[in-house]
Specification:
With 87 residues, this protein is mostly helical. It has helices at 14-18, 34-46, 48-62, 67-85; strands spanning 8-10, 29-31.
């Protein structure tokens, strides 16, 4: 995703939940079989504009997995716990 590619991930793994957010075609594609993977790749090759659109959304989504994003979330959680303890 960060390399500006459309991800294709197994539908049985964590990437389907975490990376694709359980949405087909928004950030990439999940597959259950090699045939399905080939069909998705072929559809992107036949529709270059669609590939560009998905790739751009995937690139933006990849920013959510940057270490600074996780650091901010952890700090926010710690701050909320600390605030609740002082009330």
């Amino acid at each position: 995703m960060a390399a500006d590619y459309v991800p294709a991930v197994p539908k049985s793994g964590g990437a389907w939940f975490d990376i694709l957010d359980q949405e087909q075609g928004k950030y990439g594609y999940a597959y259950s079989s090699l045939r399905e993977t080939a069909e998705k790749i072929q559809s992107l090759m036949n529709n270059e504009q669609l590939g560009v659109e998905i790739s751009q959304r995937a690139f933006e989504r990849a920013k959510c997995f940057d270490h600074s994003f996780f650091e901010r979330k952890i700090v926010d959680v710690i701050q909320k716990v600390a605030d609740s303890k002082t009330k």
